[in-house]
């Protein structure tokens, strides 16, 4: 009992109250008295120890005590430790910043490692739009002349054979092909279940019908001369035999013509067929991976739209559409690439490639089976002299010419060197044969010995009062136009007045090639994958319409060419072509410069032509078009 309770207890006897009896309590409860009741309640509270003033005092004392404790602890833990709290707050902030940095770092690390497992893959769909300055007026195999016309034709009209990425012949519509022991009869067997885009069967009748169209003089096909005298015979629905008037071991290269549908064109006249190809080309069904949908024409330009062929025997193209857009010149074409009108450019020239933004576009450079030559007019007033031809060959630094177009950024690599009239890679034995090395001093000496002297102070050599002038002709707008100028500059260094005339392609045939109106022609020839160069170097082809642009004539070369193209024995063929090349190098009817490159510029997201490959020629660029894509999608990388 605490001290305050002891003071409130009174001594016994001073104030004693008897407990009422039960009878008295009962009586009181019946008739209570107000004053008595209050007194009893007061007494009861006193007996129980309850006193209001005492409770109030106790409450005040506890409140004071609690307040004192609060003040004491507040002073101790807040006022006296305020600096510690501020320090703690800084530490907490630093801790939170550190934790946030750790969280962000972990998040970035997770993203990084996730990205290591994600790569971009090609996806189906989209439109592939190619731009070209090449002429595109028809896709008919009968009339196509330019590389783009031939390429577009191959999208729709398949051939019996085509070239693969190694420039080797492969079966397209043909399942197999072979020749007999004489080399005069070639048999081709078609793949089974071939169809046109309208679902009709493609068979031997279509092959024979197309050959007859090419041979028909009223059709006036560009392929007529190469099919003269050849007979096509149907063996069965899937087999055709071709009978030649004489053996031709390179005949399989002629089986790359596009096949046309007999059931669409049969009973139509030559005029009707030409009109149909001109006015409604989309109505002539094909068998290729694509079919022509429509043609848009704007001013001098046109857009040819091709859709996938659902009846194509091979893999269905991954593209939704392929279009070819023509431009009037290279400048507007490259501007169209920058604007996104097109996403690829075909056969761009080296000047355009030098300005390509390599962050947005990639440049593909492919070796072709063509050759660029400085072709002497062997019937020319001065170039008929072999001494002059030999001196001009010695004075030509061909390595400097090949490297003249190389770019510092690596976009343009030097073209493949060419030493002979046969493409590299056909025969290793012929690849070992070389033209004489560059030797300007020897060239000067040979000219001096034959009377072409350089007087003191004179720029050019003369003989009997005549100046040594060589007129070089080339085709304007080509990659070898600059080559012609480099040749002229090198020949001027030995005292030859060499001039260059770049002519428009539309004027070249009648104005220069047919009349052989040049001393030297810098020109590109298609060499192909076979060594048969009869068309370019046989004297039988030295006619106004022939392809012997050098007017070259050599009995030894003639015999070697004839034997090489007709002999069915592979070893004998090779030896004949070695003999031909030896004679060609000795006679020097032309200077082999290089095998030109095909340049293709495209958006970096595109998957089409592969860098480092080769093309038989620019018209064969759609050889693997079914696998081309323009869209991409992220995928998990495989370990």
Poorly predicted parts: 1-50
**Topology-level CATH name of the largest domain:** D-Maltodextrin-Binding Protein, domain 2
Distance separating the two termini: 87 Å
CATH architecture of the largest domain: 3-Layer(aba) Sandwich
What is the CATH top level name of the largest domain? Alpha Beta
Please, how many helices? 20
In round numbers, the mean pLDDT is 86
Helix content: 25-40%
Explain the overall architecture.
- This protein has 639 residues and is α+β, with helices and mostly antiparallel strands.
- The protein has four domains: 24-79, no CATH class; 82-116; 127-343 and 606-636, D-Maltodextrin-Binding Protein, domain 2; 367-595, Dipeptide-binding Protein, Domain 3 (Dipeptide-binding Protein, domain 3, Roll).
- 36% of the residues lie in helices and 20% in strands.
- The strands form six sheets. It has an eight-stranded mixed beta sheet, with helices on both faces. It has a six-stranded mixed beta sheet with strand order 15-21-14-20-18-19.
- The longest helix is centred in the first third of the chain and has 35 residues, at 82-116.
């Amino acid at each position: 009992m605490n001290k305050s309770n002891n003071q409130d207890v009174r001594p016994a006897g001073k104030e004693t109250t008897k407990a009422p009896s039960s009878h008295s309590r009962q009586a009181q409860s019946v008739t209570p008295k107000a004053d008595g009741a209050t007194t009893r309640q007061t007494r009861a509270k006193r007996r129980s120890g309850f006193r209001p003033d005492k409770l109030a005092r106790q409450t005040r004392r506890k409140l004071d005590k609690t307040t004192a404790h609060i003040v004491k602890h507040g002073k101790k833990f807040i006022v006296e430790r305020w600096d510690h709290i501020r320090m703690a707050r800084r530490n907490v902030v630093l801790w939170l910043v550190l934790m946030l940095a750790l969280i962000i770092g972990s998040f970035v690390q997770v993203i990084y490692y996730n990205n290591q497992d994600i790569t971009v893959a090609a996806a189906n769909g989209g439109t592939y739009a190619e731009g070209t300055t090449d002429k595109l007026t028809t896709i008919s195999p009968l009339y196509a002349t330019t590389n783009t016309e031939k390429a577009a034709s191959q999208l729709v009209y398949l051939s019996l054979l085509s070239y693969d990425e190694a420039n080797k012949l492969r079966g397209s519509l043909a399942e197999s092909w072979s020749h007999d022991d004489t080399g005069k009869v070639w048999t081709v067997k078609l793949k089974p279940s071939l169809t046109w885009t309208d679902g009709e069967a493609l068979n031997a009748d279509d092959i024979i019908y197309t050959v007859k169209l090419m041979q028909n003089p009223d059709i006036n096909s560009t392929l007529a001369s190469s099919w003269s005298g050849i007979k096509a015979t149907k063996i069965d629905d899937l087999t055709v035999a071709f009978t030649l008037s004489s053996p031709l071991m390179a005949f399989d290269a002629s089986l790359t013509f596009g096949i046309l549908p007999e059931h669409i064109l049969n009973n139509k006249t030559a005029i009707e067929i030409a009109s149909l190809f001109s006015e409604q080309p989309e109505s002539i069904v094909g068998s290729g991976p694509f079919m022509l949908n429509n043609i848009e024409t704007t001013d001098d330009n046109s857009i040819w739209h091709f859709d996938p062929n659902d009846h194509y025997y091979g893999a269905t193209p991954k593209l939704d559409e392929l279009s070819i857009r023509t431009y009037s010149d290279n400048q507007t074409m490259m501007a169209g690439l920058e604007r996104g009108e097109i996403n690829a450019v075909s056969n761009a020239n080296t000047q355009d490639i030098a300005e390509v933004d390599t962050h947005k576009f990639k440049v593909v450079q492919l070796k072709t089976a063509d050759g660029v030559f400085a072709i002497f007019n062997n019937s020319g007033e001065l170039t008929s002299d072999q001494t002059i031809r030999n001196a001009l060959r010695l004075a030509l630094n061909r390595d400097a010419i090949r490297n003249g177009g190389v770019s510092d950024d690596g976009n343009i690599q030097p073209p493949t060197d060419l030493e002979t009239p046969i493409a590299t890679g056909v025969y290793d034995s012929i690849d070992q044969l070389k033209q004489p090395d560059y030797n300007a001093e020897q060239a000067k000496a040979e000219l001096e010995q034959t009377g072409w002297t350089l007087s003191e102070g004179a720029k050019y050599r003369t003989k009997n009062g005549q100046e040594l002038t060589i007129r070089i002709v080339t085709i304007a707008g080509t990659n070898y136009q600059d080559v012609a100028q480099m040749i002229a500059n090198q020949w001027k260094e030995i005292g030859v007045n060499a001039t260059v005339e770049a002519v428009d392609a539309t004027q070249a045939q009648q104005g220069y090639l047919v009349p052989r109106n040049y001393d030297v022609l810098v020109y590109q020839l298609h060499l192909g994958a076979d060594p048969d160069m009869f068309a370019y170097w046989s004297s039988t082809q030295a006619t106004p319409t022939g392809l012997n642009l050098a007017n070259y004539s050599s009995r030894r070369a003639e015999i070697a060419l004839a034997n090489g193209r007709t002999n069915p024995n592979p070893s004998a063929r090779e030896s004949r072509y070695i003999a031909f090349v030896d004679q060609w190098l000795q006679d020097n009817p032309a200077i082999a410069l290089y095998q030109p490159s095909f340049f293709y510029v495209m958006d970096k997201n595109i998957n089409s032509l592969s860098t480092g490959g080769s093309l038989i020629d620019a018209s064969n660029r759609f050889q693997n078009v079914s696998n081309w894509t323009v869209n991409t999608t992220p995928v998990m990388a495989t370990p």
